[in-house]
Amino acid sequence: MGGVTVLALMSLTACAGVDESSSANAASVDKGAVQFAAAEPTTDAQFAPSSQLAQAQPAQQGKTQINAGQEGAVSDPLEPWNRYVFSVNDVVYTFARPWIAPYMVLPQEGKDTVDNFLHNLTSPVILVNDLLQGEFDRAWTTTKRFAINSTTGVLGLIDVAEDYGMAKHDEDFGQTLGTYGVGDSPYLVLPLLGPSNPRDGIGRGVDTVTDPLFWVGTTAISAGRMYGTFSNEYGGHVNEMDSLRETSLDYYATMRSLYTQMRRAKVKNIETPDSEEANIDYFSHVDDPQ
């Protein structure tokens, strides 16, 4: 579920930050999609907006903030099937928790090291998509980050480039297609991979074959990377996912809304909070597009 979305959770994926001491926002369901609107307290939990998250800052000058009200609502014609796959995925992820136990016991510094290493490995894919989108300044930043972190940063284990003001960013071919006007409907939930859509599904395939490790990596390397990615994407957000599952009126519809809004923000190169807990805090206060 991103980005597990498993990577899309993962891609995402999207998870919950809950202030149990505050009052709740009521959720209204319209055609299966959840809208979050301020209401009189009705439960013991509330997604409380942070002053720092109330406004998402563009990642690049000239980019505009996402306005969900101006976006078309994502269609979900396969909702019954999607809900079934979503439920199966949720069970599989639950049984997978013991497998990621080694990652879960790492201190935060260790988890950051895993994330740095995996992000550095994806630099060639990010670079390709930077160029395809005409984002040449970002492409140059990606190139410098890869060179610095792969050497001084010990194969990317340490994000030295961040200290030089070169912040990491993600790009994938699904985002690239989005910048060329390809829409994000219909909504799909993929087995194991979680929330997606045809555009992002095709994008995932293109990103796979444009990754150098796909062609030169051994089976052991590929398996190790897959395990590390799953542990990082899912294990890093498992607590927030549990929180969201417990507090959402409709867990499936909430994840659908969050995934759609987050992907639209990424297409527009809008910076979202670093943590998935903060992401859901921000996006839960953006109305689901109509």
Total DSSP E strands:
4
Q: Please, how many helices?
A: 13
Sketch the topology as an H/E string, one letter per element: EEHHHHHHHEEHHHHHH
Total domain units: 1
Q: Find the structural class using helix and strand composition.
A: mainly alpha
Distance between the termini: 24 Å
Helix content: 40-55%
Work out the strand percent.
Answer: 5-15%
Point out poorly predicted stretches: 1-71, 275-290
Keywords: Lipoprotein, Signal
Protein name: VacJ-like lipoprotein
Signal peptide: 1-16
Family: Belongs to the MlaA family.
Account of the protein in words:
Helix 7 packs across helix 8 (198-210). Strand 1 (26-30) and strand 2 (33-37) form a beta hairpin. The chain is mainly alpha-helical and 290 residues long. The strands form two sheets. The chain has a two-stranded antiparallel sheet with strand order 1-2. A two-stranded antiparallel ribbon has the order 3-4. The protein has helices at residues 79-96, 101-104, 108-121, 123-132, 136-151, 160-163, 173-179, 198-210, 212-216, 219-235, 238-247, 251-267, 276-283; strands at 26-30, 33-37, 188-190, 194-196. The chain has one domain. Pfam families: MlaA (PF04333). This is VacJ-like lipoprotein. InterPro entries: MlaA.
